[in-house]
Amino acid sequence: MRVIRTLLPWAMAAMILAGPAAATPGNVDAPRIIAADQEPGSWLAHGRTYDEQRFSPLDAIDADNVGQLGLAWYADLGTRRGLEATPLVVDGVIYTTGDWSRVYAIDAATGEQIWSYDPKVPRAWGVNACCDVVNRGAAVWKGRVYVGTIDGRLIALDAATGQLAWETLTIDRSQPYSITGAPRIVKDKVIIGNGGAEYGVRGYVSAYDADTGNMVWRFWTVPGDPAKGFETPDMEMAAKTWNPGGEWWNKGGGGGTVWDSMAYDPQLDLLYIGVGNGAPWNRWERSLGEGDNLFLSSIVALDPDTGRHVWHYQTTPSETWDYTATQHMILADLTLDGQPRKVIMQAPKNGFFYVLDRATGQFISAENYVHVTWATHVDPVTGRPVERDPDQYRDEKKLTFPAPFGGHNWQPMSYSPLTGLVYIPAMDLPFTYAQEKGFEYGRHPWNMAVDMAAAMPSADQDPALTRKVMRAVAKGHIAAWDPVAQREVWRVQHDGPWNGGMLSTAGNLLFQGNAKGELVAYRADTGARLWSAPTQSGIVAPPISYSVDGEQYVAVMVGWGGALGLAGGIAPMQGDKVGGRLLAFKLGGTAQLPPAPPPPALPPPPPQTASADTIAKGHALYHAYCSVCHGMNAEASTLADLRYMQPATHALFDKIVLDGLYKDLGMAGWAKYLSAEDSQAIHAYLIERAHQTQREQQGGWWLAVKEWAYGVLATLIAWFIKLTA
């Protein structure tokens, strides 16, 4: 006993010095996240801290020495789809996610994989994921790793081993829901939403007990069928802003999915959620064009214990453009008019940058951060946008800025308390909206009541010109935004849209990956480009920074994809051949990526035997059903480029498209929506595109002249579009 009493104090002291984090892998809790600045080498939560500022206090890498940054290591993840995750770093271990909701634990110093977990999502469920089978990250809490899956499950894994602890189904599998967002954990509750509004669902966000997986509460974002009553007083209140004559519950469920951003204020004890677009998009079909349709396109503050509504602010009342408010939200303390204010900031899709009081939801200010044509401004008294035309595209098609991809999409922005600037991965691109005539819910897999063909290139337009116009019109940039003055301070212009999320650091640095396949460092105060590294594939994910053994790293997930990455077909061809990776850089790093394989050769296409009318029909059907995954004009950079089909694929075309021969690879059958004649028309169009591509690749002086002429014409068209929209 004397020996035990003698050794016990030493043993206890050793345990205290080692700390709970060292004793238990993934040992993260609320006090640790709240005190995150005391361990700046970690990245404990999705935005590093509950306020989601994505600012790293690390400064060993700074504006003076960033030129010495080199690759420390890379980890091949064996993926071929978009990678959008924010990695977490806890006690020297990186926890991240990949396509199809796969989870990885990786040594943060070496890149060696510790474990991986595949939730085995049925590949056919990918048809319900509007914007690629991506996942934006995990949450770590008290020894477990939590992730949502594309097919609607919430999964808890042992942080040390990757073994399944529990899983729970969060959706009704008879409805086309999906999960791509990262969970947040507040007060031992795992908070998760879902997506699917484009297909037709009713949105909600739910909280689950972190220990058991049992649901604690659910907040519906739109009311259901009024005849069935309302789940809560919140829904009864919201229903007063909908026109029951629109029967939204029968024509798409209303939408309002909470598919991405959240934030939490521990002092105010408020959970903030961003709510998405209407289902259908078109407000005349959804609610007869009447009412604000709460809580669509809103920032909503909830009581995290009960899930009850505390306040809301709607960025786009009666939204009708897919202008979600699911974009990244940042909490900060600003001095406004000489007074300190606790604010929440957001740059949603609609093109305006908002500053709100986060305690009350009171509107403070809003200014457009990109080109906006649907509204003139946000009224400073009412906080409501002033629409240019109350009818918008109801009676005739209308070219509008921003497009449904938004002035800012899901890619996170960052706030630096040192510069006082918010860094927005912004986009300027238009879209032609038109009402779908004779809309019937369920007639198409996409239920938006918007005529998508009106926005697509015509069948007789040369794809080479379409490509040139797309690149001339669709632009992206970094906007360094002063939230106090509500103005852009500086800008970095990109060649195109759909670039990665942002990271700012105490070293006066700003990091972003881009669509060209680079990770770039800029001065945070001026935007001067200081350093870059090739990554062999376009980047959409946000970087993070962490440290191990006193050495600072910058890491980013590399893998092109996501909504515009698939539909736009705008990344280099090699993007899908390199595969997904996690890259980590440090000062003096000397690792090298293996050489990228050359682009594939175009197989000789089959003879074209179809008529011009059949090809034109195939063009229309392709853009209605296929382009969202395989790219506009059948130019794909991630999934299969259908111009490059092999003879065996041509022979099996109907079995693939109609019968679902490749459903286990993610290509579901479309016989419910397409006839054999439709499939043949699409096939004819793709054969025609292969022949056009073959002629382009064979070149010749006249093609060079045409390319030059198209470039000039595209520049003029882009200028005209922005001037007249």
Account of the 3D structure:
With 725 residues, the protein is α+β, with helices and mostly antiparallel strands. The protein is 19% helix and 27% strand. The N and C termini lie far apart (85 Å). The chain has 13 helices and 39 strands. A five-stranded mixed β-sheet has the order 1-33-34-35-36, with no helix packed on it. The chain has a four-stranded antiparallel β-sheet with strand order 2-39-38-37, with no helix packed on it. It has a domain at 440-473 and 601-725: Orthogonal Bundle (Cytochrome Bc1 Complex, Chain D, domain 2), CATH 1.10.760. Residues 1-22 and 572-576 have low confidence and may be disordered. Helix 5 crosses helix 13 (701-724).
What is the highest CATH level, the class of the domain at 440-473 and 601-725?
A: Mainly Alpha
In the CATH hierarchy, what is the architecture of the domain at 440-473 and 601-725 at level 2? Orthogonal Bundle
Give the number of DSSP strands. 39
Low-confidence stretches: 1-22, 572-576
In helices, the fraction of residues equals: 10-25%
How are the SSEs ordered, and which strands pair?
Elements: H1 2-23, H2 30-34, E1 55-56, E2 69-76, E3 88-90, E4 93-97, E5 103-107, E6 113-117, E7 139-141, E8 144-148, E9 153-158, E10 164-169, E11 184-186, E12 189-192, E13 204-209, E14 215-220, H3 233-239, E15 254-255, E16 262-265, E17 270-274, E18 278-279, H4 283-287, E19 298-302, E20 309-314, E21 329-336, E22 339-346, E23 352-357, E24 363-368, E25 375-378, E26 385-387, E27 398-400, E28 414-416, E29 421-428, E30 431-433, H5 463-473, E31 475-482, E32 487-493, E33 502-505, E34 509-513, E35 518-523, E36 529-534, E37 544-548, E38 551-558, H6 562-567, H7 575-578, E39 581-587, H8 612-625, H9 627-630, H10 647-651, H11 653-657, H12 676-698, H13 701-724
Parallel strand pairs: 1-33
Antiparallel strand pairs: 2-39, 3-4, 4-5, 5-6, 7-8, 8-9, 9-10, 11-12, 12-13, 13-14, 15-18, 16-17, 17-19, 19-20, 21-22, 22-23, 23-24, 25-26, 27-30, 28-29, 29-31, 31-32, 33-34, 34-35, 35-36, 37-38, 38-39
